Amino acid sequence: MTVIVRDLHPQDPADVENFTRARHLALPHVLWTPAGVIHRTLHTDPAAHYRSLVAEEDGEVIGTAQLGLAEDSQEPGHAYLNIYVRPDRTRRGAGALLVRTAEDHLTAHGATKLYSWVLDEPQNLAFAQRHGYRPTRPAHFLHLDLAHTALPALQPPPPGVELRTATDFADDPRPFYELDAETAVDEPSDGDATFMAYDTWIEENWKHPLLDRALTTIVLVDGRPAAFTAAHTDGTGRYATAMTGTARAFRGRGLAKLAKNDSLHRARAAGCTEALTGNDAGNEPMLAINKWFGYEIRATEVRHVRELS
What we know:
Number of strands: 12
Number of helices: 8
């Protein structure tokens, strides 16, 4: 049997469906849909030199990769490659071939420091080590059974605080962008990062096919956006938190809890039955909030890095 690696064909619905299925089998803790895969492939900032790859064995997609330059990094040469092989199709050489193809592409575009998320399982960690990657920090995938878990009761917002949705910002999403930009740069990361430009954010985030604007809650304090939780849904009852954050001037007031609780209640009322999210293991405030809601850790990934001479 022969394994080959090639680019995903985003115009071929069957190819995109096979990519999505393989990625879901390898990483079921994240929302994967054909629309989301196509959007990522076609609308990532061209400066990233982004590619979606598939590993194919005798016509069957058994592995996938997403890779690109970290265009938000203040230090040039940073890049990422995330490789996933179907758990029932390992030890066929697909992972190694995906890594080699991805590294060749990234180094050709000037990459000198490669980052990758690796599932915290013995064979995955050993694979990363064999290819020259060393572990840095872990992150968790969390799950909440929305259908059977009692959510904290909704509380009326304090005076001067108002709950809105992203739909309310359809005519001018820039205030939402500015809030997202301020909170995102404070997330745990591998180095100093700059947030994407507004036009890029519109294409990559605001127009993302999974963004559920009606379930995305934005908290206003005296009319100013202060906290938010961005919701993604896939139309099958799965809801995922894409980002939750609070502007620096408003932290410590429980606004992130307020936003997330509002969004989760409305998600359940809309028919969502399970909620997904992910947190850096060092992000103790957000992990505490999610534990308060009833989220449980389902899996862990470990960030790895390889520095090239």
